Amino acid sequence: MPDELDGALVSNDFPGLDIDAEAVLPSYFLWYSRTDAFIDLCRRSSEGSTNRVRLKEAAFFDMWIEVPPLAE
Fold this sequence. Notes:
By secondary structure, the protein is mainly alpha-helical. The protein has a domain at 25-65. Helices cover 31% and strands 6% of the residues. The protein has helices at 26-32, 36-44, 57-62, and strands spanning 46-47, 54-55. InterPro entries: Restrct_endonuc_typeI_TRD_sf. Keywords: DNA-binding, Restriction system.
């Protein structure tokens, strides 16, 4: 979890993740996480019904996205 969230309340409903800045720029991930493609990825790795849909982390982490080289 990022240092700036130290002391924050978390739950399984809102997982906190660290970004490997050697693999992807945090600002790029912030942008990408708001795209339809990312939202679809989250939907495909979630299950449940009646307002209790939950992200299945194992399914989520099995998915891959292409990221541009850091220089871009």
